[in-house]
Specification:
Layout lengths: L15 H26 L9 H9 L2 E11 L11 H12 L8 E10 L5 E14 L3 H18 L6 E9 L2
């Protein structure tokens, strides 16, 4: 049963999922700030990009959003885990109609701390969706339906969601 508490609760109050997201965002910010120091201390001697190279990279592609969803496979009360066949059927029924251009799916292993404080380890899937930033509002509702459907179908505590702005060129 996955892992990431829901963003629910009255407006203005921090729910467990909101708290988790804020904690994750803070951790990412710390890592991002520490990266230049880590690179400097490792003695990375890579040459700096020329101004023309940097501007070419910055202007290539269009604005996109990359959304990653993390699905656990263990189920509560000792029920059998979600099988590959069940997950593929879920993708066909819930994801493909909402994102017909196709997601990328990775098999994984996950670890999380449940609501009782117990560390759980399980087989998992990571689903990556890439879509134009101009479609973010419409896609948000579709992504939430995808998450809700999995949580309900497989009795999951949650499906984690991670988003980043990026550029893409096809």
């Amino acid at each position: 049963m996955p892992r990431f508490p829901h963003f629910t609760g009255p407006k203005g109050l921090t729910s467990p999922k909101r708290h988790t997201a804020l904690t994750a965002a803070a951790a990412l910010a710390v890592l991002a700030v520490g990266t230049p120091v880590a690179d400097a201390t490792l003695g990375d001697e890579a040459p700096a990009a020329s101004p023309s190279t940097a501007s070419a990279v910055a202007t290539r592609g269009k604005a996109y959003i990359e959304t990653r969803l993390f699905f656990g496979t263990e189920r509560p009360d000792g029920r059998p885990e979600v099988t590959d066949r069940q997950f593929r059927a879920y993708i066909d029924e819930e994801v493909t109609p909402r994102f017909p251009n196709g997601p990328t799916i990775h098999d994984g292993r996950g670890q999380w701390r449940d609501f009782h404080g117990v560390i759980e380890r399980e087989r998992s899937y990571e689903l990556t969706l890439l879509y134009p930033a101009s479609e973010a509002r419409v896609r948000d509702a579709r992504i939430e339906r995808i998450r809700d459907a999995y949580e309900k179908a497989y009795a999951q505590e949650s499906v984690a969601r991670l988003e980043e702005r990026t550029t893409a060129d096809f």
